[in-house]
Design goal:
Strand order of the largest sheet: 1-2-4-3
Number of strands: 4
Largest sheet: 4 strands, mixed
Mean pLDDT: 78
Shape: elongated
Low-confidence stretches: 1-10, 12-22
Helix content: 10-25%
Radius of gyration: 17 Å
Strand content: 25-35%
């Protein structure tokens, strides 16, 4: 569907923009995610739910890992220049709701 007006929309399981506007980082209540999924579907789009762990998205569909990244990042120091790197792991799981 790339390039069409019916592109996919996403709700993140651990910090959905529609649910967590105050930035608390709390996991969205399942009822609220389901309400948003229905709104996306009603708009004619394909709802997907994203999360950092499979258990965060599996209540809404089959969990698939869509990103598994292992890289290095500069250490974070506020008082001096970085003098090394740390491992950074990022995982994103998706369920088509």
């Amino acid at each position: 569907m790339t390039g069409s007006s019916r592109s996919s929309a996403a709700c993140a399981a651990d910090r959905p923009a529609e649910v967590d506007r105050k930035g608390s980082g709390d996991v969205a209540p399942e009822a609220e995610v389901r309400r948003l999924v229905e709104r996306v579907r009603a708009a004619g789009r394909v709802p997907v739910v994203l999360g950092a762990e499979p258990g965060q998205v599996s209540p809404y569909g089959t969990a698939s890992q869509v990103l598994g990244l292992v890289t290095r990042q500069d250490e974070r120091s506020l008082t001096e220049a970085p003098n090394g790197t740390w491992t950074l792991r990022m995982n994103v799981w998706m369920a088509v709701a």
